[in-house]
Amino acid sequence: MKQVIYLDNAATTRTRPEVVEAMIPYFSEYYGNPSSVYEFSSPCKEVIAHARETIGRSLGAKTNEIYFTAGGTESDNWAIKATAEAYAAKGRHIITSKIEHHAVLHTCEYLEKRGFEVTYLDVDEYGTVKLEELKKAIRPDTILISIMFANNEIGTIQPIKEIGSLAKEHGILFHTDAVQAYGHVPIDVDDCHIDMLSASGHKLNGPKGIGFLYIRTGLKTRSFIHGGAQERKRRGGTENVPGIAGLGKAVETAMATMEERAAKEQELRDYLIGRVTAEVPFVRLNGHRTRRLTNNANFAFQFIEGESLLIMLDMNGICGSSGSACTSGSLDPSHVLLAIGLPHEIAHGSLRLTLSEDNTREEMDYVVEKIKEIVDRLRAMSPLYEDFMKKS
């Protein structure tokens, strides 16, 4: 296999060796069903309890407020659907934003077909929710506000504490999709007045197929998967013990290394952004310049198609994306880029590069040089670019 420079960590991350090592015993050595009463299942019960405690501590939450799921999409669905069902007698109005992940947007669309009303908030040019618009959108029948902690495409971090305070002030439940942020930035659910929080293991060097939903004590959120008595009767099904063991280890490692990791990623990110914006003409950085995830760089290049850029980067051993991994098969421009005001033709020329602590400055130099070469080549074939240059 050719050498790869992997810059798509927002899509998924490499599972760390220590995480794999933590999972292995629960496949074939300690393979008992955690719901069984015999002693052979005790190690499985213990590793689940330990992972729950680790995650609870990482958020300033209670252990019994952590519920394991199959990942961020399930957690988002659970938080929104079950809340809507449980609180429908109080109201049928939900507030979210236009730049949420489709796990939230499509769930809200599902509820709209069942009689709920959803307000989709605009964002500013950096992708930040406008607090004044949020205040105006709140109604007596509003039961839930769901705003992501940080955007998966452009990396902008939302004013979560202020949003949580507004929700608490009005007696509204607040859910945040923290899939991109958890394990990368500090989060305290009490300080931010968060009632529900979604996270996924494979975004923080853990395994795929495992995540969790934090649900604050006292919420009457209903069960999401009916079956056995697992997860305190709120999510039936035999627990994914190896996945939970891996998630617990990934969280433990992420929390211990967060500060050092973020500093390295931010230095590389700023170096990459600085070179691209200085050396490639007709490019813009999408998202907030500083209030963004430390590993996220999202560019829009005029006069080119992002898909062609991605293919040619791949031919040079560079993995990037044009937006959310969940919509990679779509030919439509990113809903996030359209929401921040980019016209279709520019939104089509987007490139998202998301770094990890494993990347190096030498890799960034190589990536920049390849971007410059490829953008020049694509623009040389563009009639739009030719017309633009003639008129300049």
In short:
This protein has 392 residues and is an alpha/beta fold.
What does this structure look like?
The protein is of the alpha/beta class. 42% of the residues lie in helices and 14% in strands. The chain has 14 helices and 12 strands. It has helices spanning 17-23, 25-28, 42-59, 72-86, 102-112, 131-137, 160-169, 230-233, 241-279, 306-315, 335-339, 344-347, 361-380, 383-391; strands at 5-6, 66-69, 93-97, 117-121, 142-146, 173-177, 196-200, 211-215, 283-286, 296-301, 318-319, 350-354. The strands form 3 sheets. The protein has a 7-stranded mixed sheet, sandwiched between helices. Helix 7 (160-169) links the parallel strand 5 (142-146) and strand 6 (173-177). Helix 3 packs parallel to helix 9, helix 9 packs across helix 13 (361-380) and helix 10 (306-315) crosses helix 13. The longest helix is centred in the middle third of the chain and has 39 residues, at 241-279. The model has no long low-confidence stretch (mean pLDDT 95).
